[in-house]
Write a structure and sequence with these properties.
mainly alpha; elongated; 85% helix
Length: 171
């Protein structure tokens, strides 16, 4: 009977971890919740199944996700022809959007406003430079695409963290 209860608890734990991963889409640090849970599992089991090295890989993947999320959107803007003001506008607009959105409708607002702020900031930056709305809107669109892509990469890295936890703890 005890192994059945153990398996049920593991499935419930994995469900919680999956929900934590999905929370990344609404601005909650889901990958870091996964890392915290990996640490707890490691400490409870004395790193017997989920070894310390696996835990360090999880930390590295979560860190990489944060770095990519921070810079991928900006890189897309620059690659698609955005100038310094467009890139700067995308960054500042995205940051201001996250802050404003957190106050308006936390936590979903921070993501939505972050996307909108990056778009608006890139458009404004490019309008100052080129003074052509079509060019500014094109760069703003790519700012939005870059931000969404960054979130997708961060989620994919979170899936790898989740996979590591599940494969090392299911016995």
């Amino acid at each position: 009977m005890l192994p059945v209860i153990y398996k049920i608890l593991l499935v419930l734990f994995y469900t919680f971890l999956s929900l934590s991963l999905l929370s990344t889409m609404i601005g909650v640090p889901g990958n870091w919740i996964l890392v915290a849970m990996a640490l707890i599992v490691g400490l409870v089991t004395k790193f017997s199944d989920l070894t310390f090295w696996y835990f360090l890989v999880c930390v590295g993947l979560a860190t990489l996700g944060e770095v990519i999320e921070s810079f991928l959107g900006l890189a897309v803007v620059a690659k698609r022809g955005g100038g310094k003001l467009g890139v700067l506008g995308s960054f500042v607009g995205g940051l201001l959007g996250v802050i404003l959105g957190s106050g308006v409708a936390p936590p979903v607002g921070s993501v939505i406003f972050g996307f909108l702020g990056a778009f608006a900031g890139a458009v404004l930056g490019e309008l100052v430079k080129h003074q052509q709305m079509d060019t500014a809107l094109r760069i703003g669109f790519w700012s939005f695409v870059g931000r969404v892509s960054a979130m997708a990469v961060k989620m994919a890295l979170g899936c790898v963290i989740l996979w590591i936890i599940i494969t090392t703890t299911w016995t």
